[in-house]
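Q&A log
Question type: sequence-to-structure
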Amino acid sequence: MEHLNKLCKTSFYIIYLLRHLLRRMKKEQENYSYYFNLDSRPTASNEHLIFFNLTYGYREIGSDPNKFKYVPMRISTKKRIKKEYWDESTYRATRLFDRKYGIDLNNALSNIQATCIEELKAYRLINSCDPEPKELKRIIEEKLGRKQKVSNEKLLIPFIQNYIDNRIDIKKETKKQYDNLMRHLSQYEQIKKIKLILGKLTIDWYWDFFDVINKKYYEDEGVYLTQTTIAKDCKNLRAIFNEAIECDIEVGFNFKKKGLKINEKPKSYETFLTQTELQTILDSDASHMKTFTHARNYIIISSFTGLRISDMKYLNDITPETVDRNGTKCLLFFTKIRKNKEVNKELYACIPVLKPVKELLDVYGGTFPKFPSEQVLRRYIKSYLKHLEFDEQIKMLIYYYNQSSVGTIQYKEKHELFSPHDCRATFITNLKQLGLHNETIEPITHPKVDAKEILNKYDKSDLVDNAIKFNNAINSINEMRKNQGLDDSLYRII
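Response status: OK
Response body:
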């Protein structure tokens, strides 16, 4: 009986220890935290690489055994996103991103998160200890089906293609640039009878590549590639090299070395619409063609507000309002504009509604019309201006790669060169020619008021004051023109 009692006590003690051990192991398995973050360095397309960080108590001891630091496991998700679409509170893309581009990105992030945590728990369960961050990263990379440190046998062109395929929200224009780069690289491989391999590239190859494709283009087309084309190839090639480094793939040479960047030549011509040309557009009937209607609407709104094409997307839900300030009435609207590159803030502008814009709004029931994409709109505008016979010869300098530092003079008709952004130049140039000063125009075209500040100012007084100042200046100029026996300018108040 005594023996039986001892056996029972022993069994109870063993069970107790096992339960305690299991509880401890479970607690250790849950001892972790994680978060996603964006790389501080944006790509050329203003996207940021997303990283997953897993902290689980691993400590790295230095020369002093009494001192240590916690080291997380950090792994690239291979996914990119613009800051404006990233939600810091949820570590996911915003709902707006999901609606525009789908849920694939968020699903991919959730899968990576789950895989990392599962592999940590599995390692702890099997080994009864924590893995080194490098070891855990290796295990996770294998689980995700990724290749480890890639050898020098990584072909360059397929790598670029894979890079493009994995970018969810890549723009058509950006994809077109990468397609051009791959076509040039393919031409180079055919001419040299080689395959370009990451890890074996050299500075000599770098310069030879641009020289060879430049000569090839001359043989095919009779002219050399422009400096702008070569500069775009250079920019995109460097972006690919940065991607390779993120994937632990060697390039073969220090492509960030000073002197290896090829820059575009500055724009050598200016195009804008005169008031006479704007009057032609205002008098034209574009209702018979939808493409012409889009082009006409865009030109009128941008040429009389100074808004960029990237800012037009905010107009669809905006209704202008009349503000009375000390007896002076002004029809205006508030709108967000592109983030300021210097301060990286979302800004607000207050835009006065001039008569041509008001007349257009009346046609659409007081609301702004919608526009197609920039690429499509660009084609529409060129076609519309050609229809109106805007064929003024514009002098321009073309810089061909490695041919001349002074450029080659050429002439093109205005409708061939005119772009949506030139409407903004039209607004600024015409106002300056009428006599408005920069300090009156700049608050309209280059405001510096933060969106957060706007929310704290119920009357938005600063922006309104600038708009009224602008209107008063327009009225003064037109009154002066009237006294001189001249007609009102097209830039006039309702």
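Response note: The mean pLDDT is 84.
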